[in-house]
Amino acid sequence: MIRAAFAASARSAVASSSRGFHSSPAAFTVTEKVSEMADKLNKKVGKGLASAIETGEQASEKTKETVGKYMLSCGLAKDKAAQASTVAGQKANQTAAGAREGARDFKADVKKETRK
């Protein structure tokens, strides 16, 4: 009997001394909820930033394509202008050569006529 009384009193003494630091279930739930809310907020912000970065990359890619097409069309326009200029120069040279030849023929005809 004494042994049972001593064991019961010893258990209560040990149990009361070990409960110095104890968190209540309500406090743990609030901490848990705050952690969950912070995690959700972090994920939403991360998704928003990822979406913004992706949109920026798409816009950058479209700009590169547009600039590339513009540069290509400018290059083609330059090439076409250079070709047109070359053709015009050649035609001008042909016309000038034809005019010189016509002038020589005219002079030759005039000389023939004057000799008669």
Write structural notes for this entry.
The protein is mostly helical and 116 residues long. The protein contains two helices and no strands. The chain has helices at residues 2-17, 25-115. The longest helix has 91 residues, at 25-115. The protein starts with a helix and ends with a helix. The relative contact order is 0.03.
Distance between the termini: 169 Å
Number of strands: 0
What structural class do the secondary elements suggest?
A: mainly alpha
Q: What about the largest sheet?
A: none
Q: Give the uncertain stretches in residue-range form.
A: none
Mean pLDDT: 76
What portion of residues is helical?
A: over 70%
Number of H- or I-type helical stretches = 2
Q: What is the N-to-C succession of helices and strands? A: HH
User: Into which percentage range does the β-strand content fall?
Assistant: under 5%
Please tell me how large the radius of gyration is.
50 Å
What is the overall silhouette?
A: rod-shaped
Topology:
Elements: H1 2-17, H2 25-115
Task: Sum this structure up briefly.
It is built from 2 helices and no strands.
Characteristics:
116 residues, 2 helices, mainly alpha
